[in-house]
Amino acid sequence: MSKVSLEEVEAKLLENHVDPARVQTIIHQLEEVVAELKADKETEVPKAKWEFVIVLNDTENVLAGREIAGWVVQQEVDADAGLVLSKLSDAAKNQNEAQKRKRNYITDLTNLFEYLKPKFLKEKKVRIKTKDLTRVLITNGRL
Question: What secondary structure letter does DSSP report for 82?
Answer without folding.
Answer: G
